[in-house]
Design brief:
3-stranded antiparallel sheet, single chain, alpha+beta, globular, Type I restriction enzyme HsdR N-terminal domain-containing protein, HSDR_N, 6-stranded mixed sheet
Length: about 150
């Protein structure tokens, strides 16, 4: 698979008929290795190994109802109180990060109302802090460490 703008990690990958599968350590199963899944699995490892997020507080493909329609958010991170604190939307590395991608994560956030939104294609990562009191958002230089947001 393609190199990403993330540290390099090793994964359990196997073939099943004519598909490649990658082991998802969060869902505890092998899933089809698509370009988007490659980004998602690398980003999960980045969050756990570099940013200190406990794997036990991460949900993958979390169901979120948007306007009564079931959707799936790529990654949702929780704090120690089981409240969602971050949504991550992953795209394949060949997909450009556009306003449509930000609109997608904003729709998920209408339901979850988390303080941090992250959009990544594995090459470019954007993180913003949502200030609901001021009804504004601020793009951050980096994705926060778990220790800095665990009590939100």
């Amino acid at each position: 698979m393609e190199n990403l703008n993330l540290p390099t990690y090793s994964f359990k990958i196997k073939s099943d008929l004519q598909r490649k599968l990658i082991f998802d350590s969060i869902r505890k199963k092998y899933v089809v290795l698509t370009p988007e899944e490659w980004v998602r699995q690398n980003f999960i490892r980045f969050l756990v190994e570099e940013k200190g997020y406990p794997a036990s507080l991460i949900a993958v493909e979390k169901k979120v109802d948007v306007n009564l329609l079931p959707q799936r958010s790529d990654i949702v991170l929780y704090n120690g109180k089981a409240n969602p604190v971050m949504i991550v939307e992953c795209k394949a590395s060949k997909i450009k990060i556009t306003q449509d991608v930000f609109n997608q994560i904003a729709r998920y956030n209408m339901k979850l109302r988390v303080p941090f939104l992250v959009v990544t294609n594995g090459l470019r990562h954007f993180c913003c802090f949502m200030d609901y009191e001021k009804k504004s958002f601020t793009f951050l230089e980096d994705i926060p460490q778990y220790q800095s947001i665990k009590d939100l």
